[in-house]
Structure formats: structure tokens, C-alpha cells
Design brief:
Helix content: 25-40%
Largest sheet: 5 strands, antiparallel
Structural class: alpha+beta
Distance between the termini: 25 Å
Shape: globular
Order of helices and strands: EHHHEEEEEEEEEEEEHHHHE
Radius of gyration: 22 Å
Number of helices: 7
Number of strands: 14
Length: 368
């Protein structure tokens, strides 16, 4: 997935406190408890200025409750802690593409012109660390719908409007009450990578690598202990609380089979998408008969993609119907054990952190 936008990193933003109010329960992922505390605090104040911070914190807690109704449990490939001044050099981006900005504490990602100048578009004040991967733009913000700190968001390109769509929170556990930022998918379509200062010292940052999922499975999780476990994003080999075998009845078995079917279609969509990206790159460089042949392959590939997406949508609707039936009948299903079995059955892809070199210092010029 090609990146088409330079990324500006202001390193000073890492570790900013999300609120002057007590965030302990938020950091423990006890969103119900945090909301109760903030509402109790609001009853003590009539002055709007004194109430404002508690009102904001209460909104974060409410958002946390809502976002954890759609939890993802990504397959974590790797996790490593780095100093906050160099963590970005371990991302699988082009060597020598990170540059210090002269006379500032900023770093930029991109290719300077012959005068060592990078000409960047003016950034939206709500967006930090934007990165475009194909038809998706990922960025961090603390001003949109989130749970405190910097959350992660995605906007998708809308062909009909010729503009980016409304930002969507990437959801839990990518977004958390801590600062989460610099999300990017690798060009080979295998991994998603992001950084966070959750459970870090002030001078460090965790970098997480998870398996890329085009259409992840969601589940409702409200237990703070379980939420902390999910948010820890422990690679499977490091997880001390890996569950044992899952005992399934017929109802649970049907649910797990549908999850496996959805995953299979998601994998097919991901592979078909990567193949279309490769064909589009070749089409841009081709001429004459070869260009016509690739155009035909593209048309056929897009029809195939439409068919696979239709099957994925159908399986996803059936999965949601099963989940709705469970909710209406008070049935609770813990899929963590199944997910672990599935990961054990397949060899997890490897990822190796490699430190890239800094490019030469540059001057940055912003323009519209």
C-alpha cells in the first residue's frame, strides 16, 4: 500500500497528560467506575469552568464504554519498547526517509527536493501524524470522538465526492486512554503497526505489530481485567494468561465456524486487494498491447473482488445475526480461547525490528 503523504512527527507530544482530573480508573480500563467518579464530582460544582474538565472526562469514559462494545482482538506478532526520540526509525519505511527539521524538535518522513526542502501540505489542526495507505488515511487526534489522549482514526477516500470521508475511530484496543499514534499498514499487506505510550515511562514508546485484518471480528467486553489483557497486546509467546482448551457446545461451535468463515473471506479479500494494487502499478508503466492486457486483468480482478466481498458481507451478516441472537437470549461467548487455538494452528508470520538511518536535515515549507 503506497504512502502518498509526508508524515510530520512532533516528538514533544508523546506523554502529554490527557486531563488534570484523576485518570486512574480510565488507565485501568474501568470505564464504568471512571464515569461514576466523574459524575459524582460534577455534583460538587455549579460553576461551568470547574465543571468543564469533569464533563470532558465523563465523555471520555462514556466513549470508552461505547468503544469496548466493539472490541477487536488482533493477532499480535511483535511488541518492543524504544526511546521516544527514535522509535519511528524502526518502522518498515524507506531507509534515509526520516529527516530532522532544521531549528525545530520535529522529524519528517519524505523525499526532499534538490535544495533539501520538503514541501508539505498544511495539516488539519485536528490531525497528527497522518499517513496514507492506498485509499485510507490514518492519523492521531485528541479532538475527535475518543477516550482521552490521542486516539487513532481512519478516513477512507470517497471517489464520488473526490474527498476523504468522515474520520472513524479505529476502536479498542488500537485506541486507548493513553496516547496512540503513527498507525500504518506495511506495503506487503501483512501487518499493521502503531505506537503507544501505554504502560511506558515518559521517555519511551511501545511499538506494536499485529496481523493486518481488513474486516476484523468484534465482540463485547466490559470486564476491566479482560480489557487490560487485550490492551496489553502481548505477543502470543509472551502472554502469561493464555487460555486453555475451549469446551464447545453446538451453539458455540456454530458461532466459531462462522467466525472462521468470515476470516477466510477476509484473507481472500486482502490477497485480491494486494494483487489489484500490483496490477495498477504495472498498468501505469505499461504501453500498447501490454497496457490493454493488464486492463483486462484489472477488470477481471475487480469483478472477482466484488464477488468475494459479497460473500464476505453475507457471512458477516450471518455472524452478526448469531451475535444478536446471543445478546437477546443472554448468552455470553468468550472467543479468546478459540482465537488462541486458531493462532496455534497456523504459523504466525515473523517480524523483525530493523533500525533505519536518518536522512540529512531539511527545511520544511507548508503550502495549500
Amino acid at each position: 500500500m503506497k504512502r502518498k503523504l509526508f508524515t510530520v512527527v512532533i516528538m514533544a507530544f508523546c506523554g502529554i497528560a490527557v486531563s488534570g482530573q484523576n485518570m486512574r480508573k480510565m488507565y485501568e480500563y474501568d470505564f464504568d467506575g471512571a464515569l461514576a467518579e466523574y459524575r459524582d464530582s460534577l455534583e460538587l460544582y455549579a460553576d461551568s469552568l470547574k465543571r468543564a474538565p469533569f464533563e470532558q472526562a465523563a465523555r471520555w469514559a462514556e466513549n470508552g464504554i461505547s468503544l469496548t462494545e466493539y472490541c477487536q482482538q488482533p493477532a499480535v506478532v511483535a511488541r518492543k519498547r524504544f526511546h521516544r526520540d527514535e522509535f519511528f526509525l524502526y518502522y518498515p519505511l524507506d531507509d534515509l526517509s526520516w529527516h530532522a527539521v532544521r531549528d525545530t524538535s520535529a522529524f519528517v518522513f519524505g523525499t526532499p527536493d534538490k535544495t533539501d526542502t520538503l514541501r508539505l501540505p498544511v495539516r488539519d489542526s485536528l490531525e497528527f501524524l497522518p499517513m496514507i495507505c492506498g485509499q485510507e488515511r490514518y492519523f492521531a487526534s485528541r479532538d475527535l470522538y475518543g477516550m482521552g489522549g490521542y486516539d487513532l482514526y481512519v478516513s477512507r477516500w470517497d471517489e464520488s465526492r473526490g474527498d476523504w470521508g468522515e474520520p472513524e475511530n479505529l476502536g479498542f484496543p488500537y485506541s486507548s486512554p493513553y496516547d496512540d499514534f503513527l498507525f500504518v499498514n506495511t506495503e506487503d499487506g501483512r501487518f499493521s503497526i502503531f505506537a503507544s505510550n501505554r504502560e511506558c515511562t515518559a521517555d519511551s514508546v511501545n511499538v506494536y505489530v499485529v496481523e493486518y485484518e481488513a474486516n476484523p471480528v468484534h465482540s463485547v467486553v466490559s470486564d476491566p481485567v479482560k480489557l487490560r489483557q487485550i490492551a496489553g497486546l502481548n505477543p502470543r509467546t509472551e502472554d502469561p494468561a493464555a487460555p486453555g482448551p475451549v469446551i464447545r457446545d453446538e451453539q458455540t461451535g456454530r458461532y466459531m465456524e462462522k467466525i472462521a468463515e468470515v476470516r477466510s473471506y477476509r484473507n481472500r479479500v486482502s490477497e485480491a486487494s494486494r494483487e489489484l494494487d500490483r496490477l495498477r502499478d504495472r498498468y501505469l508503466l505499461a504501453e500498447g498491447e501490454e497496457k490493454a492486457r493488464i486492463a483486462s486483468e484489472l477488470a477481471e480482478g475487480e469483478m472477482n473482488m466484488t464477488g468475494i466481498r459479497a460473500e464476505l458481507d453475507k457471512a458477516s451478516r450471518e455472524l452478526r445475526d448469531i451475535e444478536t441472537d446471543f445478546l437477546l437470549n443472554g448468552v455470553e461467548i468468550d472467543i479468546s480461547g478459540f482465537m488462541e487455538e486458531e493462532r496455534e494452528a497456523s504459523s504466525a508470520p515473523a517480524f523483525e525490528f530493523t533500525r533505519h538511518r536518518m536522512g540529512s536535515p531539511v527545511t520544511v515549507v507548508y503550502s495549500r
